[in-house]
Amino acid sequence: MKTLNSIRLGGVDVLPLIEGGKGISVSTGISSGHWAAAGGVGTFSAVNADSYDDDGRLVEQIYRGRTRRERHEELIDYAIKGGIQQARQAHEISGGEGRIHANILWEMGGAERVISGVLEGAKGLVHGLTCGAGMPYRLSEIAARFGVHYYPIVSSARAFNALWKRAYSKAAHLLGGVVYEDPWLAGGHNGLSNSEDPQKPEPPFPRVKALRDLMRTFGLGETPIIMAGGVWWLSEWEDWIDNPELGPIAFQFGTRPLLTRESPIGEGWKQKLLKLKFGDVFLNPFSPTGFFSSAVNNGFLKELRARNDRQVAYATEPVGELTAEYGVGPRNRIVYLTPPDLERVRAWEAEGYTEAMRTPDGTLIFVTPEKSLEIVDDQIACMGCLSQCRFSNWSEKTEDHSTGKKADPRSFCIQKTLQTISHRPNDPDALERNLMFSGHNAFRFATDPFYANGFIPTVKQLVERILTGK
Question: From the centroid of its chain, how far is CA 354?
Fold first, then answer.
């Protein structure tokens, strides 16, 4: 394989190997610090990061506020304290080697306040901001305020064009790189547009080439592009390295760093990764963010898929084919279904799915009484972890903190499930019944000789292995 040379990123020379930022309590100061110490760019997640007391014990995030707004303020306080501690830990472990980046989701609740608080409390310890899950126009403004480089995550040249023209051109000197995240192969939330088919993946080279061509028109020919999503062996990407069509390229690894000794996920989670098969990662539309996301197809996603399949259209008055009467709720309020749908509903009821829940789209879904209570309890307990949530109808952008739509029972509380799986990682039931984000290449753990006989490397060993092309 071609020699992988250092790259200029954020004003310093580093290995063009970036650790991808991964959600709540999965990319931490420990994992990112070790990645930076190996000479690359470590990335900790500043999304509701964990914090610890003076004795090093995890601070449980308990919400005592009576209203959503009060709980939202508690969430922001937890997130800032946790992000500061993760930054300090990463800095100490890295020993000044490599670079440390903080990753945020633009659509997370209080995103600007959280990252501003983290950067203020950890001055000089964070070298860059990566941000996706939305259109982070104000990312450059925040970076300029604190004098750090920024790395927007995009999935198309069109998205970067909009960001550049609206905001980034005003802070071009701090644009450290642009992350191209493959919307079909990356883990977590994906940037699929309405014009793209989730079932028809497109090859990344033409899309990245289009991004580079656009960047050159803005004078950004030497600004690195970071390829994220689907990267496993660098030998498979050899034609990208030192390719004049693409210019400076770095590679981001999100899934492979999960399976290291320094990775904070538990042994049970790591063992599950070692056994995944092709197709076990599912691109799904259920996230409360409204984005597609990629996660392991476990019992959690299977239940959501079944919940959405048990769905029928209804009307409050008979119209067209909606003529069959059906009583909803404890008051048995009459709505109208099609006769064939009424037969399907009776069959679901016979299987125990007796609770009808209304959706914002004029449909009913059918769940068990236990699941109905769980959904309602989760909606009531909302703490505003997203800027807008389709599951609970929370919005931080309106005076009444509501999206103006009905809460959608076809989705789920993302804060609850990610906190549960990250803090009960060895509990088989927790692993099966919660959202487990993953890139689509995770099945390769089971076939890559590097992981033979259940071998789990250190971060240093993983980086050294990646540099060989394998």
Answer: 33
Check: pTM over 0.85? Answer yes or no: yes
Give me the residue label for tokens 């898929």: 305
Q: With contact defined as beta carbons under 8 Å apart, do 48 and 86 qualify?
A: no
Radius of gyration of the chain (CA): 23
Q: What distance in Å separates the CA atoms of residue 298 and residue 247, rounded to the nearest whole number?
A: 40
- Distance between CA atoms of residues 27 and 2, nearest Å: 29
Q: Is the pLDDT of residue 193 over 80?
A: no
CA 47, chain centre distance (Å)? 10
CB 66 within 8 A of CB 41: no
228: left (phi over 0), alpha (psi -120 to 50) or beta: beta
Domains, the chain, ordered by start: 7-290+442-467 (3.20.20.70), 299-432 (no CATH)
The b/e string for 341-352 (b: 16+ C-beta within 10 A; e otherwise) is: bbeebeebeeee
Packed helices 29-37 and 459-467: angle between N→C axes, nearest 10 degrees: 40
**Backbone phi and psi for residue 228, each to the nearest 5 degrees, phi listed first:** -130, 140
Give the tens place of pLDDT for each residue, 228-248: 999 999 999 999 999 999 999
